[in-house]
Amino acid sequence: MYVRKKPLVAGLAAVLATLTTGPAALAQSESMTIEEVVVTARKRTENLQDVPIAISAISETTINRAGVERASDYIALIPNVTLVDTANVGDTQVSIRGVVSTRDAESTFAYVVDGVLSTNPNSFNEELFDVQQIEVLKGPQGALYGRNAVAGAILVTTKMPSDEFEAKIGGGVGNNDSYKVNAMVSGPIAGENVLGRFAISTRETDGHYENIFTNKDDAVDFIKDTSMRGRIVWNVNEDMSLDFRGGYSEVEAGAINFNAAFAIPAFEAAFGAPAYFQDVNDLDFRYTSNTPGENEQETMDLSVKLDWDLGWADLVTYVAYNDLEEYLLSDGTSATFYGYEVNPSCQADRAELNSFSRPDLYGPFFDPYGVLPPGPDTDFQGVYGPYTATSCDGYQYQERNQEDLSIDARLVSAGTDSLRWIAGVYMAEIEREVVVAYGADQGQGFLRQPYVPADGPNPTDLLFWDDFDTTVYAVYGQLEFDLTETLELAIAGRYDYEDREVSNKVPNVNGSGLNGNLNDPAFSGNPVPINPAYVNNANGIPDRDDSFSQFQPKVTLNWATTDNINLYASYGIGFRSGGFNSVGTEDLLNFWFNSGFGGPGELVDAQISVTDDYDKEVSTTYELGFKSELFDNRLRLNAAVFRNEVEDNQFFEFFAGPFGLLRSVTTIDEMYVQGFEADFQWLATEGLTFYGGIGLLDSEIEKNKNRPLSEGNDVPQAPDTTGNLGAEWVFPIGGVDLVTRLDWQYVGETWFHTLQGEQTPTIWNFLFQAPGAFAQDFSRSSRDAYDTLNLRVGLEAENWTVTAWGRNITDEEYLQEVIPAPEFGGSFNHQSGLRSYGVDFTYMF
Which N-terminal residues, if any, form the signal peptide (predicted)? Predict the structure, then answer.
């Protein structure tokens, strides 16, 4: 068995031993020590400090006292980990050590709940309730957790059913008409061997922002979430147990709450309007959409896990099923390009909602927006902007539906042996449907479906609609050797094979003709197919398929230098599968932005290279770290340095233009992220704990064939500095505890695109028939550094708690995300939440 004992090198031991004794003021009580944390990062239970992985573990106590309810709450407590949560409820992007998950591609981290790997893309951002512990593992974890764990893994452990009856009810109220209610019941179901637990949570908030056109304060960033979870554990005998889990959730929320900002210096010079080349952090946000921004999701997950002690090893097997149905509807982006200019609905809206009659909707006249009344001299003249009160910008509709089945079986040796091992197999079948549609808003309401015919209320003019079928097979294993009493060598490896197929579901029909920009290339008024790929595939768009495979090794050396200090070194590889953009992506972008294809791109000449498919991503990481517990185990201090080299990093690109909008995935050929991170927890006195961490990143794009000018720039969403600092004070008062917790978070300046000031062509070169005259410049499009402060003060008794809380109590205004669209010549920007506050309670029966 691997046990930390005296060091092998006496000289080093003497130096390190001095760290285990400190000033007398830090040795007040031998019994006052930091609580041991048990983790399952290597698929067996181990002490956090013994595991040679950079792990941030959030205990049940911290979850409750820090008010952790969604993923963003605990990520704020972890250095070198950031999160963006914008377009819709499930559309979260997590950056772990600068490697960020990508819209419309696979995730970059494994998300595991109660030992079951989730393939549902929205499950990560579900409501967190009745949770026991959260573990965030940094660095590639592909050897044990498989495909897509290129940046790390996040493990969530929910509460086990209790062997005695217990129940809890809780809730709370807050500003913005917020409320929540939750309940739990647990206990034996059939004797002592069958235990059950059921928990439910519902919450609702109007959000921070108001639609100033509709005068509704529950139409922008509102959310309604009802989630329930059931669990039954059947202890068949002393050696075998079955764990049945089921969950269901329904979510209604706002969607696509972006405002646009131009980034074209030539416009600023020509019109004398600063808003044409604006710092995105100074944007005056206005929510004016006439289309209901809505996102609805329905999610169900089921799993059964077998744990069987065979004597010589444990057999752990699970079967999991997930089903997600999701759509979102919102305003469009193409008004400035006049595609729907002569439609009766656009003409009528401009008569009532122009810049002269409603300056509150558009701001200063032509700085940058100007909407003119209809007429022969004013049609095709204004600068409308996206997401406006008029129907001139059309609408967008999206779906993300997924059904999947996965199976994992592994043998795990006893954790007390000097040679410990794991061997397993994995299989998954994933069916995913993706819809992106753009069409006409005629003021007649909306059918919420992928295709609406020309005689419908909201005809479809541009449609991407694909079915993706994925089959995954994998074998994996790990060996842990005790080379000496203090030195452990771990060798792990996994081979993944993934077969992917995609089939087009877009009907071979023409558009409605209402969008003049989407008619034939000569702009003669004749509609063309609603998917550009049909132009070259008149008899039908063929199916596509490809396969991706990768061996993911990991080697770790762990040295217990003293009873309280571990040093480790590791090398590992992570892999994310390649995939497909929607059919027609390449044809559409070539026509509008690239020369040589006979369209507007002849005058734009952006020279971008976006194809209908993209390569797999492979990351290689080297890491050195240490873990320590000092001053009689009252100070826990862990740190690591690392370098991550990534090939074909999958990067989300957003395109907007006369056609509407398009989402795609490209690749950054070569980049690296290297850095340092440290976190600590210090039990200063009985009841007073300080904690915090810092993350430092240095990154560079080394090769990028799609955007060569970006080479040498920072990696997107890899802020150079992140940190957190906090204190928790527990003070007994008359039989109850007064608990006060203060949390501060800092995130440094963040770029969201590979282009960071390099000027490139825009669609305006075509619209003004002036090649090379109008280039974008994103030098003012990074998000400024920001910091937030959360405060919670409560009373805790044996069976009840009452807590007053405030998030972002300094009311810091900062951006959540910036989505640059280079060929449009601007960015789409999303605000973060403002100050929120309220009171929560729980009562345990």
Answer: 1-27
Are 219 and 331 in contact by the 8 Å Cβ rule? The answer is no
> How far from each other are the two terminal CA atoms of the chain, in whole angstroms?
42
Residue 742: which residues within 8 A CB-CB, separation 6 or more? Answer: 726, 727, 728, 789, 790, 791
Largest Cα span, the chain: 90
Number of neighbours of residue 790 by Cβ within 10 angstroms = 22
Which residues, in sequence order, are CB contacts of 723 under 8 Å at separation 6+? 79, 692, 693, 694, 695, 745, 746
Is pLDDT at 367 greater than 70 in this prediction? yes
- 72/83 Cα distance (integer angstroms): 6
Closest C-alpha among 115, 85, 112, 87 to residue 100: 85
AA identity, residue 69: E
Phi/psi for 79 (5° steps) reads -70, 150
CA–CA distance, 361 with 354 (Å, rounded to integer): 9
Question: Of 318, 407, 311, 415, whose CA–CA distance to 43 is shortest?
Answer: 415
Contact 156, 123 (CB under 8 A): no
* Residue in 695, 574, 597 with CA at minimum distance from that of residue 644: 574
Cα 824 to the center of its chain, rounded Å:
25
Show the domains of the chain with their CATH numbers: 10-844 (2.40.170.20)
Q: What is the mean pLDDT of the chain?
A: 92
Q: What is the rounded CA–CA span in Å between residue 199 and residue 231?
A: 9
3-state secondary structure of 385: coil
pLDDT greater than 60 at residue 551: yes
Half-sphere exposure of 306 (CA within 13 A, CB side): 14
Across 38-151, the runs of DSSP E, i.e. the strands, are 38-39, 46-47, 55-59, 81-85, 92-96, 99-100, 109-113, 116-118, 131-138
> DSSP string covering 175-218, please?
TTTEEEEEEEEEEEEETTTEEEEEEEEEEEE--S--BTTTTBTT
Q: And the tokens for 436?
A: 């992106």
SS3 track for 454-495? CCCCCCEEEEEEEEEEEEEEEEEEEEEEECCCCEEEEEEEEE
**pLDDT band per the 50, 70, 90 thresholds, residue 524:** low
C-alpha–C-alpha distance, residues 89 and 653, integer Å: 20
The alpha carbon of residue 544 and the mean position of all alpha carbons in its chain are separated, in whole angstroms, by 28
Q: Which of 189, 202, 181, 180 is nearest to 248 (CA)?
A: 202
pLDDT bucket at 21, cuts 50 / 70 / 90: very low
Decide if pLDDT at 519 tops 80: yes
Contact 478, 42 (CB under 8 A): yes
For residue 15, pLDDT beyond 70: no
CA distances to 607, 666, 677, 776, 805 from 761, rounded to whole Å, are 9, 18, 39, 7, 49
- Asked if residue 182 lies in contact with residue 172, where contact means CB atoms within 8 angstroms, the answer is no
Q: What's the pLDDT at 826?
A: 96
Can you read off the two tokens belonging to residue 529?
A: 């197919």
Task: Report the pLDDT value the prediction gives residue 123, as an integer from 0 to 100.
Answer: 84
What is this structure's pTM? 0.92
